[in-house]
Amino acid sequence: MTTPQPQRLLCVDALRGFDMFWILGGELLFAALFTWTGAGIWHSLAGQMAHSDWHGLTAYDGIFPLFIFLSGVTLGLADKRASALGGGARRALYRSALRRLLLLLLLGVLYNHGWGTGLPGHWDEVRYASVLGRIGLAWFVAAMLVWHCRPKVWQGVALAILLGYWALLAGHLDNPAATPNAWVDGHWLPGIHYRQMPADPEGLLSTLPAVVNALLGVVAGGLLRSPRQPWSKAVLLAALGLGLLALGYLWSLVFPLNKTLWTSSFVLVTSGWSALLLALFYVLIDLLRLRWLGLAFAVIGANAIAIYLASSLVDWPYVAASLFGQWLAALGPSAQPLGAALALLAVQWLVLAWLYKRQIFIKV
């Protein structure tokens, strides 16, 4: 007996698109609005569009964890079990997962050395750690656990990772060069690090707790897939998010929030916000039926990795200026940054809308 495939939820693609929106140029809007209006609220929001230097959390710090969380949501919605498959189907599943992992690792290296730089001529000058690589590794490990273990087992593994990581890093948080992450990356991560930092933000050791972001996404996906009433699912998702936030912020009193190290408290807090956002999008799009909102962001989310990679390989600001340059020049000096940001977003969105309308989805 085969398990029926769940209906695809528009809210998941929409939230993935909302996440990517800020990477594609949305982060420029607040600073541009401040330049245009001078209102302090935009200046405060613009400050949230940059990563924390070390300890702390900004809204921009949550973009990457949300993407990993959503990769886990798709696992929870699919609810695959390798033990339920025949030998041939199981081998095909493994090949597909391994191919996805290797492709994301390769594309991550390509992204790191996109237009304007190019791949170095020497292997030891390549940056191998990447955002796409971490997404691939976190998803792959989470998939192997979910496909082969009962929920109590992989949930226990997630808890062990968080507690073990805390024990490993305790007392080594003040000096970036003295962290276990710096030692592991210095000895075992080939090539160069991001901005020559002692510990690469997408390094080896800090990828381990990122697996838990994906596993918590599996929990959320399981809630959405459950036979409960739709509004009950929304309430449970919100409760999951609030519970994770409470635990994470309490834990941060002794194990600070830190994106570079991807601390255990950072995992819980970012997963909490991710669950709350998923609950919000589920209510607005799939329950209240605001389909226009869902489609506006789903256009981006349906080809999220493709447009992320293109942001490294295509000079989108040049394209936007080529199309809208005369109109932008006609704006006043204070309005030009806002016009440039909107033009940048419009060009990318129109390309993605063209792909979406023709049902062209570039999947990895």
UniProtKB/TrEMBL annotation:
TM spans (from-to): 21-45, 57-77, 97-114, 126-146, 153-173, 204-224, 236-255, 261-285, 292-314, 334-356
Keywords: Membrane, Transmembrane, Transmembrane helix
Record carries keyword Membrane: yes
NCBIfam families (alphabetical): NagX_SO_3504
The protein, known as: DUF5009 domain-containing protein
Source organism per UniProt: Gallaecimonas xiamenensis 3-C-1
Lineage: Bacteria, Pseudomonadati, Pseudomonadota, Gammaproteobacteria, Enterobacterales
